[in-house]
Design a protein that fits this description.
Radius of gyration: 32 Å
Largest sheet: none
Distance between the termini: 82 Å
Number of helices: 32
Structural class: mainly alpha
Number of strands: 0
Helix content: 55-70%
Length: 814
């Protein structure tokens, strides 16, 4: 039984493209096949199965192809017809640009070229830029990057993100960015080059995400739309223009590569997912969100990546095993390479009778062995709040960041206290909106998936009667089913039997000491590769299902756009929530209350959702290639105009924020204007002004910081230091004294105050007060440095040089 071919009118309508890139079936059911090659892991085009005619018969009532019957005039324009006018220069250029994006299937290189141009325009800093904010600690003061103290190249696995050993770490273990920094640091130390490869990696991420979208939907315009939305996302400026953002960019590369690996055959996909997740984890620990998200994406997208053999639950299981294995191996390697001290809250045992869930969570955190995270109430005031108020404040921050993702009216490099204070009540608009946006997107994702399942069922039922004609990989691929099934079954059964034999026989008997030496959590890893390979072969050897194809049955086409769009949106909605959750300050208190670079992973999901939303809106207003409206209807231009406004606004805000990174003075000037309630922004701006000789401006800004954060030791000491450098040491001393009282163990601040008093020859004038402070704070750096400097200041020229703070823009101290 065969289906009747479409009418000539329907075929002609399918070939008509609307005047924009938002409606672009790559291969319509009745149009010519796609001109580009199938994506990696997809079956190539094949001739029709044996017994099928090479071409379809003409529709009823239409003359057959070939020369016209005798006596009939030949077809074509009359001899007197004039040739069509050549297009104008602008029209030809527009056609060439449109053909670049819509005439051929996007590849990584074809997508990377325009996206790299956009990224360079939006995010490139001035060539005269300097190291800004934490870039100085990450590179200038990084002992690993600077190869200080005999630190070798491979020692990155034993150092944290800032080049510090485990006993001095602040909890960030990211060796891959350090390897990259160390390599390029040997070539150049110019800050411009160390941010520029962030820009290129970001463009590569956008190109890879565009390819993933195309492999899932086979829609060229939608693929480029996703890449544009991701690359131009303004809230990602901190991660792309800031040098320290390389960890987020490389971590995002691992996550997108894991998504791309889902298109591989079942026997290869787990290994691709494993490698990509490992890459992401060693770039930034945030990539742990791939453990739940990649299996979820495999579950949703299986009928898109493998239309004839979806096996969604088995592919999701393969992805879950691979991602979990990468996570377990990463944790075990980090525990051995980077033995950081255990956080105090995990070192103490739980009380007797603790709930089972609490005990399990405690044991999991002890195994994970995260290095202690610093808790500074200035950087994260939520750390000092009780759990309900911390969650309410975290939900408010999440809501503000989510709106910033879509409408980035204000962007800032800092949100310190009191810009994001602890809320005084639990229920308010921000907390309610944040809670709603934590719950509603996953529920919407579930609803979309259910609707997509229904459409998939209808699509397959319609084609079940013509299954043989519409198999994508029939013929030769079908003949390989039994060898794959046999080999896969043998590998899976043999591996499971060997693992059971080792567990029940060899391990109790003390044989195979190499396996016995492995921790229990690593015991399955030696058996996992062959088991995954066997299970993947079983999936690829399964009986194929019916699948739609092009009219000439030569090109691969997935299920229709409604189903593909629902799957993409379902993945994106859940991705946004889950990938942000570890940064939300809800499960664990982070050193920072809010940072725009935290949105790099969620922006992957939001780009998918927004691209599908624009596409659906365009279809609702202008129709599709299958049911088009009037070609020049105003409806056809509504969505392109809205997208142009949205994308243009994102680009303008991204460029404006990237220009804040011209130098440290411009950065902090823009920051204090964007977040006027941030004490740190005002104080750092005052330091930048002071470094340029404007001490009056430094004094004014320091006092603003002191008023905003009256219990912040640095604000008081820096205010005093400004007065001291204005040769007003007696006015400075009350501020010094207050700062030292608030931070008796702030070594750098105390040394800064004592050194300036010595330089101004007013240290001995406050001898009694300093000794009294030392007596009031025994066993502190204040007690030691105050007495040592008073007694030995003449010998050392003030504070002992080994205790003096590192100067601005200086490298690591020996």
């Amino acid at each position: 039984m065969s289906t009747p071919p479409p009418s000539r009118a329907a075929e002609h309508a399918a070939l008509e493209l609307l005047p924009d890139a938002l409606d672009d079936d790559t291969t319509t059911p009745y149009g010519p096949p796609s001109s580009g090659p199938p994506p990696s892991g997809m079956p190539p085009s094949r001739p029709p199965p044996s017994g099928m005619p090479p071409s379809r018969p003409p529709p009823s009532g239409m003359p057959p192809s070939g020369p016209p019957p005798s006596g009939m005039p030949p077809s074509g324009p009359p001899p007197s017809a004039e040739p069509p006018a050549a297009p104008s220069f602008l029209g030809g250029a527009a056609r060439r640009v449109r053909d670049y994006f819509l005439a051929l299937d996007p590849t990584f290189l074809s997508a990377a070229a325009p996206l790299a141009v956009i990224a360079v325009i939006l995010f490139t800093r001035s060539p005269s830029t300097n190291y800004i904010f934490d870039e100085q600690e990450a590179l200038l003061a990084n002992p690993y990057v600077n190869a200080k103290g005999g630190v070798g190249f491979l020692d990155a696995i034993h150092r944290d993100f800032w080049g510090l050993p485990p006993d001095r770490s602040v909890g960030s273990y990211r060796p891959l960015p350090n390897f990259l920094w160390r390599t390029i640091w040997a070539v150049t130390k110019q800050p411009f080059f160390h941010h520029f490869y962030n820009v290129l990696f970001h463009a590569a991420n956008g190109a890879l995400l565009a390819c993933v979208t195309f492999w899932l939907t086979r829609r060229r315009g939608l693929a480029y739309l996703t890449g544009l939305l991701f690359v131009g996302c303004a809230v990602l400026t901190e991660a792309v223009s800031g040098i320290v953002g390389i960890a987020d960019v490389l971590g995002g590369l691992g996550a997108i590569a894991a998504l791309a690996a889902l298109a591989l055959p079942g026997w290869a996909m787990p290994f691709g997912v494993f490698a990509a997740v490992m890459f992401g984890l060693f770039s930034k620990e945030s990539a742990l969100v791939c453990v739940p998200l990649i299996p979820f994406a495999a579950l949703i997208a299986a009928p898109l990546t493998h239309p004839t053999r979806p096996a969604r639950f088995v592919r999701a299981l393969l992805a879950l095993l691979a991602a979990s294995a990468a996570f377990v191996l990463y944790v075990e390697l980090r525990r051995r390479w980077f033995p950081a001290p255990m956080p105090a809250e995990l070192s103490a045992p739980l009380p007797e009778g603790a709930p089972l869930v609490k005990r399990a969570l405690h044991e999991a955190l002890v195994w994970f062995h995260q290095a202690p995270l610093p808790r500074d109430p200035l950087n994260n005031p939520l750390g000092a709040a009780d759990t309900p108020h911390r969650i309410a404040g975290a939900l408010r921050v999440y809501w503000r960041g989510l709106t910033q993702l879509v409408f980035p009216w204000t962007l800032s490099g800092d949100y310190s206290f009191p810009q994001e204070p602890v809320p005084d009540r639990l229920v308010f608009f921000g907390s309610v909106a944040g809670a709603a946006m934590m719950v509603l997107p996953p529920l919407g994702s579930l609803a979309l998936w259910i609707a997509a399942l229904r459409r998939e069922h209808l699509e397959r039922r319609e084609r079940r009667s013509v299954r043989a004609a519409f198999l994508v990989d029939g013929g030769q691929a079908t003949s390989r089913r039994w060898p794959m099934l046999l080999v896969g079954a043998l590998l899976a059964i043999a591996t499971a039997a060997l693992a059971a034999y080792d567990w029940h026989v060899l391990r109790p008997a003390g044989r195979l000491p190499l396996l016995r030496a492995l921790p229990l959590v690593l015991w399955p890893l030696p058996f996992l590769p062959t088991f995954l390979l066997g299970l993947g072969l079983l999936v690829e050897g399964a009986r194929p299902l019916p699948c739609p194809a092009t009219a000439d049955r030569s090109a691969w086409v997935p299920l229709r756009r409604g189903y593909a769009g629902m799957c993409i949106a379902a993945i994106g909605l859940t991705w946004v929530v889950v990938s942000y959750f570890p940064h939300s300050n809800i499960p664990v208190v982070l050193p920072t209350v809010r940072a725009e670079r935290f949105w790099y992973f969620p922006a992957i999901g939001s780009s998918l959702v927004l691209a599908v939303a624009f596409s659906w809106l365009h279809e609702a207003l202008a129709g599709s290639t299958l049911t088009p409206r009037a070609r020049w209807s105003w409806r056809a231009w509504v969505t392109p105009a809205l997208f142009a406004l949205f994308f243009g606004f994102q680009c303008v805000q991204a460029y404006r924020h990237a220009m804040d990174y011209r130098n440290d003075l411009d950065f902090w000037a823009a920051t204090k204007e964007a977040v006027p309630n941030s004490a740190k922004a005002h104080l750092n701006y005052s330091v930048m002004k002071g470094a340029r000789g404007d001490l009056d401006a430094r004094l004014a800004e320091s006092k603003i910081a002191m008023d905003l954060a009256p219990t912040w030791p640095m604000a008081h000491v820096y205010t005093g230091d400004t007065l001291c450098r204005m040769h007003r040491p007696d006015e400075a001393f009350p501020h010094y004294k207050r700062g030292m009282e608030l931070g008796p163990n702030e070594l750098s601040l105390i040394a800064l105050a004592l050194q300036c008093l010595h330089d101004e020859q007013r240290l001995t004038a406050h001898d009694g007060e300093l000794r009294q402070l030392a007596e009031e704070h025994p066993g502190t750096w204040l007690a030691y440095l105050a007495i040592d400097t008073l007694d030995n200041g003449a010998t050392h020229g003030g504070v002992d040089p080994k205790y003096r703070p590192r100067g601005y823009n200086e490298g690591p101290k020996e």
